[in-house]
Amino acid sequence: MRAYGYFSEGAAGGLTVAQQNKAFLDYCKREGLTASDTFVEPAPPNGRAPGFRQLIGRVRTGDLKDCLVVLPSVAALGVERTEALFRFLQLESTGVRITSIEDGALDSETQLTAWLRADDGESLGDRVRAAMRRKAVKGEVLGRPPYGYKVGSRRRLELIPEEAVVVRYIFRLYLNERLGIRLIARRLNEEGLKTRRSGNWSMVSIRDILRNRAYLGTYARFGVRVPGSHPQLVSAEDFRKVQDRLNTRRTSFAPRVASQFLLSGLARCGYCGNKLIGVSRKQSWTRRDGESRSNSYRYYQCESRTNQSVCGYHTRRAAALEAEVRSALVVALAEAAQQPQLPPRALAAAGAGDLRRLQSRARAVSRRFEGYLTAVARGRLSKDRLHDLALTAAGERLAVDDALERAERQQAGGSADEAATPAREGRIERLLADWEHLPFGELQSAVRDVVAGIVVTDDDVRLTLG
Length: 466
Description:
Order of helices and strands: EHEHEHEEHHEEHHHEEHEEEHEHHHHHEE
Low-confidence stretches: 251-258, 342-350, 414-420
Largest sheet: 5 strands, mixed
Shape: globular
Radius of gyration: 25 Å
CATH topology of the domain at 2-136: Rossmann fold
Strand order of the largest sheet: 2-1-3-4-5
CATH superfamily of the domain at 2-136: Resolvase, N-terminal catalytic domain
Number of helices: 15
Mean pLDDT: 79
CATH architecture of the domain at 2-136: 3-Layer(aba) Sandwich
């Protein structure tokens, strides 16, 4: 699973950005996550929160089944509690999962409870943790329920029969039929069984189920254990055997070093549309004369094939594919040079009016959100109704902010396409000139700055420029 870190200067328990980043990387290593992009909010924060907007944009282009936003603490979302709550709900409205290194998995109900129990002498993080502990002691669900369960009327986990059958099936395939997690994912996909989001099963989703202690019937959070809090799906003996087998799958316990791939997050399979992921393999063999040889291979492969055992075996050598992308940029630059350049146009009066209307609408949505909070604090609105209304308002504000960004770009330079074309050509030209000399991180950032997406087939590469 890919993790996106979101940090804030001066708003995360006094930690520096470097300290927050180290905590994020340590957390990813500890939880078996792939550390992907990180986003930083400057201090003092801009009212539009550029780092947060970048995070939202990245989440929207990713696979939500394989995506987790990691905060150092809830304080990273903002010092002012209403602002932090609104940003949390905006994130939640995208469908992404959210967790805090300090507090664990987060949910909107806990955030709303913490807001309503406001105490000027208590930090937002302290209020959130207190609300979560109160729920944990009672065995009430925090965060999204595991596959196989739903949240019942008393906030306890209750079985979803059709999902519970699949959970038991997964454990049986792994323990009794001795299938590996990749083959289990293939079996479920071939049999037409779907995840809760109606997607294909992957190695990550199978592994998460096999590791989840909730199936033992004991709810555990914040050091609180509530045995028998919900129906048990797996016996303690079978669960132990599964963990023993999982732990012995690795023959080497040396730290894993993630290999960096230039086109990660950009390249997609032209056959199924899923991401291409970078894969490293080391192969050893013995020649006829007895000499031992080895070699390492780096390539991009369709994630559907790698993690879900669906789609075809579409692979491209990393160096060859990256060279093709570079060549495609050369062609794009040459073609652009042949096109007549149109001068940027000033934004029309109607466009300026649109901008003012959007700014007014954004303020209105924020006022409506604050009105909901005031109403529930005064007992005029239920907490359940507040959640629905607040989530709707958060999603609406995201849509307004999207439109505002487009309108502001147009106001700054006329037609966005006309203004962007010369600047984009300049970025492509600089990228090609510096390709061999840039450090990996700067090169990857420069590629993402000019390329919005790459569609790859066995014999073709198609770029979409940003």
